[in-house]
Design a protein that fits this description.
This protein has four helices and ten strands, in the order H-E-E-H-E-E-E-E-H-E-E-H-E-E. It is of the alpha+beta class. Among the domains are: 68 residues, Type Iii Antifreeze Protein Isoform Hplc 12, CATH 3.90.1210; 120 residues. Strands 3, 4, 5, 6, 7 and 8 form a six-stranded antiparallel β-sheet that branches. The chain has a two-stranded antiparallel ribbon with strand order 1-2. Strands 9-10 form a two-stranded antiparallel sheet. The longest helix is centred in the N-terminal third of the chain and has 28 residues.
Length: 284
């Protein structure tokens, strides 16, 4: 009969522990506070004016609230996007143009920069992958004062603002265009304008995370025709077998025939029986 009180006490302790655990979990969940945050309900392209149908409000943890975000849809309505905004991405002040901006390409140009358009083709334009938001290097191919061809990087890591008239594009879908617009400083714009008057421009697509730029020392050596026709061989050099040395024959001296008869007759040995005697014989 003693087992019944023990079982009853065990059940009572189990119930108490379950109640305390459930209470602690419920109180912990209520401690996480959230705030309303305006996010994009659909993709927003740069240069476009935001309408209220493109926005919605979600609950966001207060500890990770995005800096410069909005909690009311009306505050972000009518603003111009300076950068692409993806679905469910918070709309922040850093991706919007000033309130007085009217939209279009001029609204997405950074302060102190200029927009310059250059003509390209499907090869020079990296087969359509020079899309808005990507970074490229600009190469000029021309001839120097000696009429010798050369190629050189004149601008490094410049941002593409638009491809043709589009300021937004899907990176997974290349688009062939005949012109791109680059974001440059005033000094870079002057250099680009001079470069396209002396030769042909090419765009070289680069990694968007690559922050390195070509310095003056790195770009001082331009690629020339002699670099393509260099006799240097890359890799192990296989020596050809040595050719056999030519055999030089000694010169043949002509034989001079003497007009004088030989005065000394040639002597021959004549053997008769067991006796040998010398017999003189004149040359014919």
């Amino acid at each position: 009969m003693r087992t019944l009180p023990i079982i009853a006490v065990a059940l009572l302790l189990g119930a108490v522990v379950a109640f305390l655990v459930a209470r602690s979990l419920s109180s912990g969940g209520e401690s996480i506070e959230s705030v309303p945050v305006v996010v994009a309900a659909e993709p927003i392209e740069p240069g476009a004016k935001i309408n209220p149908l493109q926005l919605r409000i979600v609950r966001w943890p207060v500890l990770s609230r995005p800096t410069g975000g909005f909690d009311v849809v009306a505050d972000a309505t009518g603003r111009i996007a300076r950068a692409p905004i993806e679905v469910d991405e918070p709309v922040v002040e850093g991706k919007l143009a000033p309130q007085a901006a009217r939209g279009g390409l001029s609204s997405i140009i950074a302060l102190g920069k200029r927009a310059v358009s250059v003509r390209v083709n499907d090869v020079i334009g990296v087969a359509g992958f020079a899309l808005p938001g990507s970074y490229v290097d600009v190469i000029v191919s021309a001839k120097d004062a000696s009429e010798k061809p050369f190629s050189r990087i004149v601008l490094s890591r410049v941002r593409v603002l638009a491809a043709a008239q589009d300021t937004g594009a899907d990176p997974s879908k290349p688009k062939l265009v005949n012109a791109v617009t680059l974001e440059l400083t005033p000094a870079e714009a002057e250099k680009l304008d001079l470069a396209r008057t002396i030769g042909t421009l090419s765009l070289v697509l680069r990694n968007e995370l690559d922050q390195a730029t070509e310095t003056q020392a790195d770009a001082s050596h331009a690629a020339r025709l002699s670099d393509l026709l260099s006799s240097e061989v890359v890799g192990p050099v296989v020596e050809a077998p040595a050719a056999a040395a030519p055999v030089v024959k000694p010169p043949v001296r002509p034989r001079v025939k003497s007009d004088k008869p030989s005065s000394a007759p040639e002597k021959m040995d004549e053997l008769r029986g067991t006796h040998r005697s010398n017999v003189s014989q004149e040359n014919p």
